[in-house]
Amino acid sequence: MTMWITVDTSVCCGHGRCAAAAPDIYRLDDNGYCGIESLELLSGQEDAARAGAASCPERAIRIADRRLGPDPAAAS
Amino acid sequence: MTVATRPDHVPPALVRDFDFHRDPQFRTDPFRAFERVRGDRIFWTPADGGYWVLTRSADIRAVLRDTELFSSDRVSISATPVWPRRMIPAELDPPEHGRYRRLLLPLFSPNAVAGMDSRIRHECVRLIDRFRANGSCELLTDLAEPLQNKVFLDIVGLPQDQADLFRKWKRGLMQAADRERRKAAGADLIAFFEEQLDARETAPQPTRRDVIAVLLESRVDERPLTRDEVLDTLILLFMAGLDTLVTVAGFSFRFLAEHPEHRRQLAASPALAPQAAEELLRVHSIASVSRTATRDTELCGVRIRRGDRILAATSLANRDPREFDAATEVRFDRPANRHIAYGAGPHRCIGSHLASRELAIILEEFHRRIPEYGLPDGYRVRTGGGALASIEAVPLVWRVA
Q1: CA end-to-end span of chain A, whole Å?
Q2: Do A2 and A40 meet the contact criterion of CB atoms below 8 Å apart?
Q3: What pTM was estimated for this model as a whole?
Q4: Residue range B180-195: average pLDDT?
Q5: Which of A12, A74, B318, B360 has CB atoms 3.0–4.6 Å from B277's, for a disulfide?
């Protein structure tokens, strides 16, 4: 099953803990904030993605079997 | 500030005797001293003009995130205010805050910091090699402080030969109990900053990418920064950046000196240092920030009045058993260590990635060279409370082969 990560970039404060836990998945921008809003995971990346999400002090990262978003249409 | 009388909206049942500036328990272990209030979710203390204290991670994070309801505008709950204007960007609220913070972010990003690793490591090793054969050192003045001074002067863009003067001003400004000495140190420091800024304006150094270059070249609201704004930023970096890492390193080595199993873990696998650094930051979270309510509201089921101040102690957040399993235990292999030693929300410490890497480098290089050490027999480390917990000296001794 395909998994997606969704990052609420309005909540991200640049802790960088996600990238420290899973640098191949959570790429940071030049300011040190999470540079991705949503990403479809490759097979085998799930555990690393979860570790990154669990490390976020702001709880900005969600993982689901579909792309999540504030707009319900985008989540389908 | 003085002891406040309980305002009418504060229920008597929520009043506690709490004073993190003066309580003698903070003189031996500030983090344990904070734990005495763990049983309350929120309470009010009359100390320093009166303020609320939160104890849970979730509540502290919620307040730090809600910058509209909880302002940072000149709110330090402090026995000794040191600067007459708002410090930038710490004491600004969004959106103003972001316009200034954004300028500095690229200098302190994880990528930028990774580029400094070899220079920091080289200096760290040089300092350790100076005292290694002596069989003793004082961790702060022999290692953490000179290393941090060098890194700080480098990133801000100040001359390295002023390190001794800097130390003197730092002591005067941050540790002096008497107001006149603090004022004098502050005036000297500002004169020094002004001199440096004048020199850089007269002879710009276009290849340099440091804090001073960025502040002098940047525009905010389509205009250059004023001299006052530049100074308000430099003062903040000085207050927030010079002593904090030194203090955390001191607490970390005090812990390691007293906990042989943890010390041996690090000595056996120095590559553990980055994770160990984060865990040591979690249990030695020195910063307690404050906010002011911008309107009447309710917090943790309690009525808060506009103008009420709230203390968010990161130590209380990071030792909250609701947030961390075995919260007071130090586990270098702790999974998902989402501590907020650097704060949370938009004001989170801009130098965090630099500080974490420096601490990891110090831990790694020290234990590679000096795996076994301790405090001198009978030595008692003295510490202090306040908005930034402090530690006086951490003398270490080891056997020389």
Answers
A1: 15
A2: yes
A3: 0.94
A4: 88
A5: B360
Contact B353 A31 (CB under 8 A): no
Query: What DSSP character marks residue B306?
Result: T
Whether the Cβ atoms of residue B239 and residue B92 lie closer than 8 Å to each other: no
**Residue-wise pLDDT tens digits, B229-288:** 999 999 999 988 889 999 999 999 999 999 999 999 999 999 999 999 999 999 999 999
The residue that leads in pLDDT, B184 or B393, is B393
pLDDT for res B204: 78
B352, A54: Cβ pair inside 8 Å?
A: no
ipTM of this complex prediction, to 2 decimal places: 0.86
Please give the Cα distance from B191 to B193 (Å, whole number): 6
- A61 located within any domain: yes
Spatial contact of A4 and A63, defined as CB atoms under 8 Å apart: yes
Spacing of C-alpha B177 from chain mean position: 20
Contacts of B342 in chain A (CB under 8 A): 15
Note the helical H segments in B291-398.
314-318, 352-369
The pLDDT tens digits of the residues spanning B347-396 come to: 999 999 999 999 999 999 999 999 999 999 999 999 999 999 999 999 99
Strand spans (E) along B92-217: 136-138
Hey, are the CB atoms on B348 and A51 less than 8 Å from each other? no
In a domain, A72, yes or no: no
Among A19, A30, A57, beta carbon nearest to B344: A57
Cα–Cα dist B11/B84, whole Å: 34
Give the angle subtended at the CA of A51 by the CAs of A46 and A55, to the nearest 5°: 145
Q: What CATH number is attached to the domain comprising A17?
A: 3.30.70.20
Of B279, B248, B269, B244, give the one whose Cα is nearest residue B349.
B244
The pLDDT value recorded for residue B82 is 67
Q: Which CATH architecture has domain B12-397?
A: Orthogonal Bundle (1.10)
Q: Is residue A74 part of a domain?
A: no
Please give the Cα distance from B233 to B104 (Å, whole number): 10
| Cβ-based interface (< 8 Å): residues of A facing B | 11, 13-17, 19-21, 28, 30-33, 51, 54-58
Distance of alpha carbon B286 from alpha carbon B341, whole angstroms: 7
Segment (H or E) for B165: helix B163-170
Q: What does the domain layout of chain B look like in residue ranges? A: 12-397
For β-strands A4-7 and A61-64, DSSP reports them as antiparallel
Judged by DSSP in three states, B372 sits in coil
Which residues does chain A have with pLDDT short of 50?
71-76
Burial (CB < 10 A; 0-12, 13-18, 19+), residue B90, is buried
